[in-house]
Design brief:
Shape: globular
Bound molecules: NADP nicotinamide-adenine-dinucleotide phosphate
Structural class: alpha/beta
Distance between the termini: 40 Å
Length: 244
């Protein structure tokens, strides 16, 4: 039977690339999205057209009870969950001076609390199974900070700490937990950045280009494989050398 992978925020960008790559690797893909059903349906169709198996579920990862219901339905229908990729994320950028409470709370709620919510409900299943892998998508800015992103960097630094604590808690039950820190990747999230901000990022990337979602997905596929069984609690950058 094929392994089951839950990927949050899989309707677009990096999550979409992860879904397509893991489907290629033989996983049954649970596509999660918040509101863009059209994009989610397109990912589902692409996986099925390539001979893979997938199902899409709408769920706001920031809502604890919604996530509980979502994961229960997946478990009841598919029997197990072997891989969780906490990828869903948002930005609400502005300088701290101008940042209102809602912009801070919203970003923490999706990026950090969402990671907690999904891990909390999926890990119960994995702990019983005594096997499983969790990959959290953080960001290099969680390591180095970034102007205009106090909310986002705090959420991503939180994900790094959360990853390490979970890795220690779950290790004896055969569950690995790792984080991937992408740098500057071409997606809708980075599309709208001002040219000046983009130029500034690029000038700090030794490989001198933005990354592609697929380049993050390849690492997820490796961490999700048996080849990565002895790797846990790590944060691995996919950033063209931006942070070293
Ligand atoms: P994106 O293109 O904006 O896509 C975001 C995805 O997350 C969409 O599928 C969206 O669903 C989903 N989502 C947002 N809020 C959600 C919620 N509350 N519940 C469930 N799903 C939700 O973003 P991306 O660039 O691919 O980023 C993916 C991850 O990589 C994020 O965690 C981001 O922080 C991280 N990252 C990105 C970069 C970069 O340069 N792009 C760099 C470092 C880290 P809908 O389609 O329904 O809206």
């Amino acid at each position: 039977m094929s392994k089951v992978a839950v990927i949050t925020g899989a309707s677009r960008g990096i999550g979409r690339a992860i879904a397509l790559k893991l489907a290629e690797e033989g996983f049954t893909i649970i596509i999660n999205y918040r509101s863009n059903q059209e994009a989610s349906d397109a990912v589902l169709k692409e996986i099925e057209n390539n001979g893979g198996k997938a199902k899409a579920f709408q769920c706001d990862v920031s809502q604890f009870d919604q996530v509980a219901d979502f994961i229960k339905v997946v478990k009841d229908e598919f029997g197990s969950i072997d891989l969780l990729v906490n990828n869903a994320g948002i930005t609400k950028d502005t300088l701290l001076m101008r940042m209102d409470e809602k912009a801070f709370d919203d970003v923490i709620a999706v990026n950090l609390k969402g990671t907690f919510n999904c891990t909390k409900h999926v890990s119960r299943i994995m702990l019983k199974q005594r096997t499983g892998k969790i990959v959290n998508i953080t960001s290099v800015v969680g390591l180095i900070g970034n102007i205009g992103q106090t909310n986002y960097t705090a959420s991503k630094a939180g994900v790094i700490g959360f990853t390490k604590a979970c890795a220690k808690e779950f290790a004896l039950r055969g569950i690995t937990v790792n984080a991937i820190a992408p740098g500057f990747i071409e997606t809708e999230m980075t599309e709208d950045l001002a040219d000046k901000v983009k130029e500034n990022f690029l000038s700090n990337i030794p490989l001198n280009r933005m990354g592609k979602s697929e380049e993050v997905a390849h690492l997820v596929a490796f961490l999700a494989s048996e080849k990565a069984n002895y790797i846990t609690g790590q944060v691995i950058n996919v950033d063209g050398g931006m942070v070293m």
